[in-house]
Fold:
Amino acid sequence: MFNALKPQAADKILALMGLFRADPRADKVDLGVGVYKDAEGRTPVMRAIKAAEKQLWEAETTKTYTALAGEPAFHAAMAELVLGKGYPAERLSALQTVGGTGACRMGFELARLANPGCTVWFSDPTWPNHLSILDFMKLPRKGYRYFDSAARVVDFEAMMEDLQGVTAGDVVLLHGCCHNPTGANLTLEQWAAVADLLEAKGALPMIDLAYQGFGDGLDADAAGTRLVASRLPEVMIAASCSKNFGIYRERTGCLMVLSDAAAKETTQGTLAYLNRQTYSFAPDHGARLVTMVLTDPALRAEWEAELEEVRTGMLGLRQQLADELRQLSNSDRFDFLAQHRGMFSRLGATPEQVETMRSENAIYMVGDSRLNIAGLNAKTVPILARAIIAAGV
Ligand code: LMR
Structure:
């Protein structure tokens, strides 16, 4: 029967990762998949994570099952990180998931169970896997305009205009910070306007928060999410620990759901049920490390310090790239690179120009010209800047 299978389209980001690995050129530069690299091109295990792993190895006496929805200590630590101290515990349900992708998937599953007729609204553009998962689930989806590709800023007017079409019970997917793929983010005033609109429409905001701490800092990056959570009666948040804890392969994420207090017990039970139907328990190791790092003051201080090094390092690279391009192009048309936040910026190159940079300069970026700033270093920035100009961007 497997002869009946049809080949699936490859995920563009992961396919690019394969192409990069296969490229024999020594000076190749990987600006594709969203992974942080230090100046030496390594993706290190963060210091606090390494220390927590050591402590865990000493202290752990069993590998028996944990709770189906994940450890309550993990839920509480993540809720405090994302929503801040004093989050409304009486309205919060949470689920430990297989990475941020798992949190997104479970969020969509929960929304579908609660409202089988819902449409999911997504920013156009968005992370391609959002769309691919929604299509796989056969959930209706609609895009809202988000990015002004000429000015490389959020097209807020268009976004609000399109969101007028949202109806009660629809899910509106938002990027909490560090928008993937554009790097252009909502201001707090814009978050407030979106919250007002969604509240008026009776829509359910679902916030994908995959890069907390990579933009303007841990609290600043959660400010939009906190604002929405403080105003709307029901909210879903899909948080990833892959990037900000550097534990990509441990697959650690958390879906948080705010509901009416009366609906909490059933919501929490449904979340656990979703884990059971899909893979039973989510992997424990990463979530345990995250809990240790967030709740032990010394580990937490070490983690925050390293995360801040990563964040300011990326800001420095953004500025360096914008400066180089200002010089080479004799214009300010690349200044947006210094304004964007997070790992990604959408450069605005054509697919042909992206291809030219790959074949001529061994520079790999996603076909829509999304580049991963965290894949650069002080030495590769000038190489990229020259390639961008040479390609005619
Ligand atoms: C990305 O967008 O590159 C990351 O979120 C990694 C992934 O799984 O696509």
Notes: The radius of gyration is 21 Å. Residues 11-46+300-390 form a domain with the Aspartate Aminotransferase, domain 1 fold (CATH 3.90.1150.10). The chain has a mean pLDDT of 97.
